[in-house]
Design a protein that fits this description.
- With about 350 residues, the chain is α/β, with parallel strands linked by helices.
- It folds into two domains: about 5-110; about 115-335, Purple Acid Phosphatase, chain A, domain 2.
- Helices cover about 40% and strands about 15% of the residues.
- The protein has helices at about 5-30, 35-55, 60-85, 90-110, 150-160, 175-190, 210-215, 250-260, 320; strands at about 135-140, 165-170, 200, 220-225, 230-235, 235-245, 270-275, 290-295, 300-305, 310, 325, 335.
- The strands form three sheets. The chain has a six-stranded mixed beta sheet, with helices on one face. A four-stranded parallel beta sheet has the order 1-2-3-4, with helices on one face. A two-stranded antiparallel ribbon has the order 9-10.
- α1 (about 5-30) runs antiparallel to α2 (about 35-55), α1 packs parallel to α3 and α3 (about 60-85) runs antiparallel to α4.
- The longest helix has 25 residues, at about 5-30.
- The chain is elongated, with a radius of gyration of 24 Å.
Length: about 350
């Protein structure tokens, strides 16, 4: 089903592609494009203003428009140059435009459907090293509108690893309340596949509140942690999990961290589960907590190939937001999942 914003963004891109092709054709014939370029810029500004007036997000929406112009309008301009120009520069422009189009194909159709299994090892002190490693499965930011084969494959691949414990750092479903009600049976069926000896643990993300989190996990083995701590036996050790939601600066979240840090004993493995990686800043230097697990960043909200993230909605360094296992300094270790899904809506 195509929503209204998809149609508006498609219409916006079609206008920009037409303008870019027209200007490219004129420039390829050797004509000046100053007046036409000014007209195109004025039309673009007017179009963007109108989109904001009808509800477009002034940040994410603009990024979406610019992305479509980069991968569609820029190639159209290059195509126009190559079609009417006769020099090498014009052919080079056409090839450069094709490169932008290929980036668009990769970013829009290949990368979002490309599941990647990542493994990371966290060394533990001798007091809680145990006889065998504990396998923690992380399934972050599924962020689907509808459950499909891609989401089922992600769950199946995780379960094939037979993890000792599974954690979900939030953002399971992103869509309207109506769509949530429609998809609820499929969501519960999907989450119902998640089973582990040490339990399946969930904290709220940006796209579900606690009520929705409990709604979608009802009837499954997934337990929601709301500024709570759970202790479970895993293999030959005990695993202590503290879960905090979006309010990672709240008194309740700080109390969870304090309890994790001050609880007596050195033999249990301690995890802090949060949606946003910023929760790691709550830990003191040389913390007793062994690892923070988070999601949220998708590897960076704006990422360039071979460069990495340019923007991430978090205060952790961009290298950390890019995902994987990191040390934030003074022994504060964090694993940031790049997530399974992608930002929906106007992004």
């Amino acid at each position: 089903m195509v929503d209204g914003w998809s149609l508006l963004f498609a219409g916006s891109a079609a206008i920009d592609v037409g303008l870019a092709l027209w200007i490219g054709l004129r420039r390829g014939r050797g004509r000046r494009i100053g007046r036409q370029g000014g007209l195109a810029l004025a039309l673009w500004i007017a179009k963007a203003w109108l989109l904001v007036q009808v509800g477009m997000d002034p940040f994410l929406g603009y990024l979406h428009v610019l992305w479509l112009d980069l991968v569609l309008a820029v190639p159209a301009f290059g195509l126009g140059l190559a079609a009417t120009g006769r020099g090498r520069r014009h052919r080079a422009a056409g090839l450069a435009g094709l490169a932008f189009a290929l980036v668009g194909v990769w970013g829009s159709f290949v990368a979002p459907e490309r599941l990647k299994l990542e493994r990371a090892s966290v060394p533990l002190s001798a007091a809680r090293a145990g006889d065998r490693p504990i396998t923690v499965g992380v399934l972050a930011d599924l962020q689907f509108e509808r459950v499909g084969a891609y989401e089922r494959e992600a769950v199946d691949r995780l379960m094939a690893l037979r993890p000792d414990v599974i954690v979900l750092p939030g953002d399971v479903h992103q869509g309207s309340d109506e769509l949530l009600r429609e998809e609820l049976p499929a969501i519960r069926e999907l989450l119902g596949r998640l089973r582990a000896p040490g339990g399946v643990w969930f904290v709220e993300g940006d796209h579900e509140d606690l009520a929705e989190a409990r709604l979608i996990t009802a009837g499954t083995q997934v337990r929601v942690l709301d500024e709570e701590i759970a202790t479970v036996p895993v293999r030959d050790r005990r695993l202590t999990i503290g879960g905090i939601g979006l309010r990672y600066r709240s008194a309740g979240a700080r109390a969870v961290v304090s309890r994790l840090e001050r609880a007596p004993g050195s033999g249990d493995v301690r995890l802090l589960l949060a949606h946003r990686p910023d929760a790691a800043f709550l830990l003191p230097p040389r913390p007793r907590t062994d690892l923070v697990v988070a999601g949220h960043t998708h590897g960076g909200q704006v990422v360039l190939p071979f460069v990495g993230p340019l923007l991430a909605f978090t205060d952790v360094p961009l290298a950390v937001a890019a995902g994987g296992l990191h040390d934030l300094g003074a022994g504060r270790r964090i694993y940031v999942s790049r997530g399974v899904g992608m930002e929906r809506g106007q992004a």
